Amino acid sequence: MTTRIIDPSAGGSGASIQLAPRPMDLRGKVVGFIDNTKEQADVIAEAMAEGLREKYGVAKVIIRRKPYYSKPAPQELIDELASQVDVAAAAVGG
Fold this sequence. Notes:
By secondary structure, the chain is an alpha/beta fold.
């Protein structure tokens, strides 16, 4: 499956990218979240982690916090998290 990503910081240009493979289920998987440092993002990530463990049998959740909400996560943080998890997502606070 290919999807089109629109980056508003790039003047509206878009690029097609190949989506990463998705697991059939999350049982026994390690899930990662990148906390965007906005208000309550840590609380939301922890609540999601608890729900994923209880409802879907996730083995472990790793949460990493990026330094600034207004900047992308450093590549080193992304690479470190990617090396430890099966699935990852950005965790958004308000």
